[in-house]
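input
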Amino acid sequence: MSATRWPSPAKLNLFLYITGRRPDGYHNLQTLFQFLDYGDTITISPRTDGEIHLLTPVAGVPDEQNLIVRAARMLSETVNGAVPGADLAVEKVLPMGGGLGGGSSNAATALVALNHLWNTGLSLDQLAHIGLRLGADVPVFVRGHAAFAEGVGDLLTPVSPPEKWYLVLHPGISIATPDIFKDPELVRNTPVRSIDMLLKCEFHNDCEVIARKRFREVDALLSWLLEYAPSRLTGTGACVFAEFDTESAARQVLEQAPVWSQGFVARGVNHSPLHRTLPGQA
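output
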């Protein structure tokens, strides 16, 4: 069998509300996930010796801590090591610490693709359970449909928001999620609302005020982008995004973006590009 290539799409948090702090220190939230038709790509080459190797290590991140390797090994352990192994390589275009879910998406792609290639036969529920052990955002990528998420982001209800065009801009910095969630000024008591009510409200991200306060680059980029279209932070940052009705409108603004930022234009999609790659799912 030859090498196969698998999409590892980005996500946006179209809204994000912090509704409370849990006894374990994590936070309850309500958020709306939508995928982008843009992201990393993972190439998987078969082995026959049961070994799992990452051919594109990340500087400063041991393989044992890399989410792709951990996902592959956890899948192997779930079926008691009865797998042929694999070499994995990732082509990264999504920034680390950008709020686009790159690491979580990489882990999910490894789980979904290897489950298919290894014929391990696990259900999406089983894969999502493994994914949750790797990170709260992994299950939505595993399940592959836009979703309203509650709890720590693990309680998912499939939804189908409008598939807009988005301009996503990165301010050239990385934001660690704990830096936002540990900030004493973070709003943690936004009222819990139904998805029907939230879809009728103007979308907002409770983390945005903190990100703008702590990181002047985020504040400057959002201030610039808001001149052109409705814009906000995704996740805990650092990326910001604006929504448009057409690709051409988004690209016109991208051409004027500050030289110190990096960006791309992508379509929001409710069915993950990863799942469209699976045989019989196109």
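quick obs: Strands lie at 4-21, 27-46, 52-54, 86-91, 147-150, 155-158, 165-170, 231-233, 240-244, 262-269.
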